[in-house]
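Try this one yourself first.
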């Protein structure tokens, strides 16, 4: 905006366009710089690895030297990858895991302490924790410790498998921070409130076995086996109708903030119209009658 005001042309009365991003606002005199590009995967990434395996996308946080702690450039890469995943009709599920022996140590405090500008994209930590309408299942393969933002990634995923050696916690209060990327909200909705309070206020860490008992993860895998267990879980997910899975997630989202059970059921019935006209519904019924494996279309 300074360049605009200092330019040769008189800016008075000219239309300006403002675009807000995590790293700050941008101003231009034409909308061209802010044109939204269709979501697409990049050829290479610097801070993550992306592997496409049939219907499942595997995303690996690839900063093992910092225990996969994330900084703004990593968040931007993850946001773009998840945008592309959700837009790709050939991908029906995703797995998020970490490189090395850790899942994610949360926010990269060393980056913050360096004086660099900390920010998150609008979709939140890891491009996930503030994202709305996540209509495909995302599975956390917790291959090691998940701390702070790492646990908040797990909370934002639909399913989770943990290595038996993993520990999960939100130690933010110990460094003068809070679990603002969803932990303060999702954790008390996931585990008993008193347990959530102890984790958020006193820094309690859960073992993988405790996390399973409390419903924070779906399964505990043997040492080194979290990713393989997550892959097996993903295959069970993609074996079903992708339309049914997508619409089930939508129905649960619609019902989540409705306290009355009957009202919640009624509200979630909105998805039935989409389900009944789905090609996958007809395919599933015919495959059952004909005693064959369904060939899902994804619509």
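Now uncover the answer:
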């Amino acid at each position: 905006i300074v360049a605009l005001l200092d330019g040769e042309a008189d800016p008075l009365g000219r239309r300006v366009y403002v675009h807000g991003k995590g790293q700050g606002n941008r101003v231009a005199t034409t909308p061209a710089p802010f044109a939204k590009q269709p979501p697409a995967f990049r050829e290479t990434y610097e801070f993550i690895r992306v592997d496409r395996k049939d219907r499942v996308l595997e995303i690996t946080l690839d900063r093992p030297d910092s225990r996969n702690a994330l900084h703004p450039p990593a968040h931007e890469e993850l946001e773009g990858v998840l945008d592309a995943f959700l837009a790709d009709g050939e991908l029906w599920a995703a797995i998020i895991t970490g490189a090395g022996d850790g899942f994610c140590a949360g926010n990269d405090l060393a980056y913050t302490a360096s004086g660099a500008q900390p920010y998150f994209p609008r979709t939140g930590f890891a491009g996930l924790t503030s994202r709305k309408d996540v209509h495909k299942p995302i599975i956390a393969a917790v291959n090691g410790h998940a701390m702070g933002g790492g646990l908040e990634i797990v909370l934002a995923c639909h399913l989770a498998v943990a290595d038996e050696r993993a520990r999960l916690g939100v130690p933010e209060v110990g460094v003068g921070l809070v679990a603002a990327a969803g932990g303060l909200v999702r954790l008390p909705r996931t585990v008993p409130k008193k347990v959530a309070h102890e984790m958020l206020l006193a820094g309690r860490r859960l073992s993988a076995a405790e996390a399973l008992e409390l419903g924070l993860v779906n399964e505990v895998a043997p040492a080194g086996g979290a990713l393989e267990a997550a892959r097996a879980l993903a295959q069970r997910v993609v074996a079903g109708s992708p339309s049914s899975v997508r619409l089930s997630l939508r129905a649960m989202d619609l019902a989540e903030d409705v306290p009355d059970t009957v009202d919640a059921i009624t509200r979630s019935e909105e998805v039935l119209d989409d389900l009944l006209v789905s090609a996958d519904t007809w395919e599933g019924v015919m495959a059952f009658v004909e005693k064959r494996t369904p060939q899902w279309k994804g619509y």
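Discussion: The mean pLDDT is 93. Residues 46 and 74 are 8 Å apart (CA to CA).
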